[in-house]
What does this fold into?
Amino acid sequence: MQGNIPVFKLSALALLCFPAVVVADDSNDSWQQSPSALTQSVRGGVGLWQTPTARMAADGNVSLNYTDNDEYRFWSVSIQLFPWMEATARYTDVRTRLYSDFASFSGDQTLKDKGLDVKFRLLQESTYLPEVAIGFNDFGGTGFFESEFVALSKKAGDFDFHLGMGWGYLGTGGNISNPFCELRDSFCKRPRGFSGQGGKIDYNRFYKGPASLFGGVVYQTPWQPLSLKLEYEGNNYSTDRAGDLPQDSRWNFGATYQINDFTLDLNYQRGNTFGFGVHYALNMNSAEQIKIKPAKLPLPENRADVPNNINFNTLTYNLYYNAGFLPRNISLKDEEIIIHGQSFAYRDDLEATERVARVVVAQLPAHIRRIRLVEYDKNIPQLEKLIDVDAFITAADFNVLQPDIRSSYVRQAPDRAALKDVPANDTKGFYNGIETFWVQSFGNPERFFMYQGGLFLGGGYLFNNQFSINATAKLTLLENFDEFNFKVDAIDSTLPRVRTYVREYVTRSKFSIDNVYGHWKKEIAPSLFAQAYAGYLETMFGGVGTELLYRPVDSTLAFGIDLNYVKQRSYENDFGFFDYNVLTGHFNIYWQPSFLDDTRLTFNIGQFLAKDKGVNVDFAKRFDSGMIIGAYAAITDASSEEYGEGSFTKGFYLSIPFDLFSIRPSKGRGRIPWIPIGRDGGQPLNRPVKLIDVTEIRSSFFD
It folds into this structure.
């Protein structure tokens, strides 16, 4: 069941501009882009029909899949996280079984199950050697299709040949002896059931029990959109969750037809069952949006001809409208011009810097040699770009063979002495804003898909750059959560109910107060940031907290600590509290390892809301388009029995830059989370502000 309900936030402006995303194909391996190489299997992931292959899609490829037959419906998402790693998340609808035996609980809804697959490439295909991969299907949870496999693939002309060996679901036919059984008797029999409350990886089952060979061939017809697939599978369906399914043949065959980014398939399985599928593919590296933006300002032909008196009105106008930069202060000192301000439009830091430099150089007297650009975010001076004017002009005007604008400036921490000499004015006054929200939950007993949508109405008062009062109200406009009747009152757990009152919180009122809090923040030492906050901090908790973060400019490592004393808010009204209180906090590590491209690992080590202690690990992978795929898991000293169904907290998310949906350059992001099952263990406080987000400009990963 859904515990900690995920929320997808979008700015109102982004929703008004929603043109189609353009996807470019920049692959050098043209045959890997053909329908025959990238077609998805029935349960998701590049493969034949019921069996996987060693093939991998193009790096960053995403396939959204729906397949259907008499016994099953599958909704899946297959993502090529790295060139050597494919991951697939799946929902299964078992059409022959009910969700539960209690009509009052789930009505006539059919059984739903979640699954996760991964595949790793061990060897890339060469002239004489095949592609080789290993994989693990449905390796966590109840294991409807739990299996392990090794697969080989080799292309010959228009034919792509595949051979593999599978264990578990892929090997129930037992058409070959399990080679591991010869090494140790414990591999001869596969344990049944699943450990804990589901959601755990049962390593003790890997490569055990019957094994089977499987394989097949894909034929790319002369008509490019059409390919044909034939496979021999090693599953005999005797232990299938849909029942003991009749199998008149182990040969499955069918055809796939590609229409632009869509692929349609029709297949005949087990000698007695027809199936079909619809798949949509995009690439998160090459996805982009056509932009309408002003032309970059030309460079002066001769700087000696530029007047000594700068027209600050023109400079300010061009900084805002051409460079997407809001200046707070502009001053001249010796041989440099110092500009304080904030970049608000261009997500690409190089383009943003070039545009600012072009605007400034267009009016810069010849004696000015440096541009000192002090960039603010969240009203804190966080980054300084020291631009060498002559080097920039040389690169931007293509006066060298290999122009490199990035080499013409240095990113560094703001010079503290310079900040004192030329301080920018404090920002003060009232502010307000509006965001849409979308709450979604999959796999509920009442209904498979439940939703809640509406507006977050935000506002507050800024006293200065350090201190503010902030508030957010939630207005629900549409939902079907009135059908949300699941409770866990009868579940025996020693953990406090810190998140599982979610039904009561989200359905109490159409209008509610999400948070009201005071907030202070400051850079208290070089690269060391601090904040403190107090009030109603999130939907379910209020209290006081503080955080420290050390984050040097462009460092791949940042770390800090947060500490919070909070009390549980009442779900009966907006401002009351229950008796439960807790001291919660974590030591936080943020690391971008060099051996994993465009990846950030986050470790939060400490005490969670239910007073369980452990670590939350977050893995985030960024693609060239700015899209980010993330997954996290919290492992604490709460046992799987205490936690309940799912055994431990885990979830996934997709972070999408608004820039992909707007024809104008823009910053900001929307986040779509998926939490398979939310319980009370491993639950952090949803702090209204996190310093890692406040300081993102210093070492950009999400921006």
User: Anything to note?
Assistant: The longest strand covers residues 511-525. Residues 547 and 562 are 4 Å apart (CA to CA). The longest helix spans residues 349-361. The domain at 22-192+201-288 is CATH 2.40.160.40 (Porin).
